[in-house]
Amino acid sequence: MNSRSNNSTPTPIPDVSFVGATPSSQQMMAAPLGGQGNPQPDKGRSETPRMHMQYPPHAPENDWEAREEMRLRELEEARARAAQMEKTMRWWSDCTANWREKWSKVRNERNKAREENRQLRSKLEATVKEFTKIKREKEELLGDNEQLRKQLALYTHADKDRSSVASASSSGGGSSKSTKSHPERDTPTKVTDSVPEQDKITSDNMDLLDRLLPKKTDSSSGGSSSSGGGGGGKIGHSEKHQHTGAGSNRKYTEEIPSQDASWADQRVLMVQLKLDEAQKTVLAERNEKEQMVKTINKLSTDLTSMKTKYDELKKSKHEALKQLNEVKEIHQDELSRVNMELEDESVSRTTMDRRLADLRAELERLQAENAAEWGKRERLDTEKLALERENKKLKVQITDLEEELERKSQQASAVLDSDMKVLQKDVYEKTKELGDLKHAHAKLKKLLQEKNVDLDHAKRRAEQYELEVKKLRGRVEELKKDLANAEDEVDSQSNLARKLQRNCDELQEQTENLQVQVEHLQTRLRNAANPIFPARKSKSFDPDESAEGIDSDEVED
User: Fold this and answer.
1) Which of 123, 194, 450, 544 is most exposed by smallest CB count within 10 Å?
2) How many domains is the chain built from?
3) Which of 14-28, 419-433, 493-507, 533-547 comes out lowest in average pLDDT?
4) In terms of residue numbers, what domain contains 542?
5) For the whole model, what pTM was predicted?
6) Domain final position from 387, 411, 431
7) pLDDT of 452-501, one tens digit each?
8) How far apart are CA 316 and CA 339, in angstroms?
């Protein structure tokens, strides 16, 4: 039973509910056997005509027709049972096929859900990584913005300090003579004019200007004519400054020595060079500031784009999580449905097993009844033999009595008359008992025949069921053998394919080797076809080619 229940298609359960005792068998089982041997005779009737009336000549034909009808009815019932069994087998095969399809669909859906879950998880991890990267970049940009704000604050503070220094230097230059201070005032005005335009002078340059400007004012108050002329020629761009510088040089030529004039000129040149360098640095810092403003704008645009991208990723993450939850709910519903179907299938299987156990118990009961019927049949056979022996004894007694009657009739007719009456009475009683015995024997024989018919039917049904079970088992074994043969054929085909692939690879290697040999032979034939002198020349210089030439000569030989 375990081997049959493990199969995918359960065997149909035959219905043996129709197997049972016929009414005649039930009557025989219900009737007491002890009272059948001595039936009471009817007093107002003769012996033999009564027996003919009880058993008409057409009774066996009616019994035969009834038996034929019973057999036809049982045959139709057996055919109906067989058709029902075929239907149940087909139903079970369809059910198993449907369950396999459902399980394959559920398995495919589960694999798809797992794959989608894996993809969504990878997307989520990628978005989380990108989000952390964007957050890190945002923090870096915020730090850069803070640094730029601090630098701008420092630059504005330095500009304010520089403007105050420039105003102080311009007020100090105004206290000296106007003719001597024009060239010196030109440079501070240039510096102060360039300050609001450039906005990027470092603290070192401011300290340098603060150190240089007082020295410049001192040199202008000392009245150096060369510094005024040089300053007017290099820094000032008006003729007025040049004339005033020339007048001051002529006026103080005698007072200032030549060494002081050359020193002042060098000092003015140095200051001019430093101012040029400061202007260059201011221009460079202005360009740097513009570049920094551009980078800030670019970073702000990047930050806004990153924010939008982050929002989009957040929305996509929420959508992905929503889809994942929906997929999980669908998967849970499908799993619950499949579990319910499996529970229903297990319940139906348990009911079928229970029904099979009931049918087996009923079959065992029928077998026990059959054994009991066999015992009754044997007992009836023994009773029949006993009745036949009694009939023989009675016949022998009748013959003895007839012989004795004839003998006594010959001896004395008078005595025989009285004795004849007694004997006739005895014979009448004996014949009556014999008729009763025959009647009981006929009844028992009829019951025995009915029991035999029922027993034959039960045997045929049992044999039919056993044949059907054997056929089903043989069919299962054949299917198992076919499956094993198919697996063996698949294995042999796979082995043959591997062998063919291996042979193909070996043939490919052989063809490649033969191709290489053919190429070598062609090269050797070409070398052999060349003139003799170049071949000797090549032999004298290349030992490999000489060896190939020798091989080609051998091939030609």
Assistant:
1) 544
2) 2
3) 14-28
4) 496-556
5) 0.22
6) 387
7) 999 988 888 889 999 999 899 998 999 999 999 999 989 999 899 999 99
8) 34
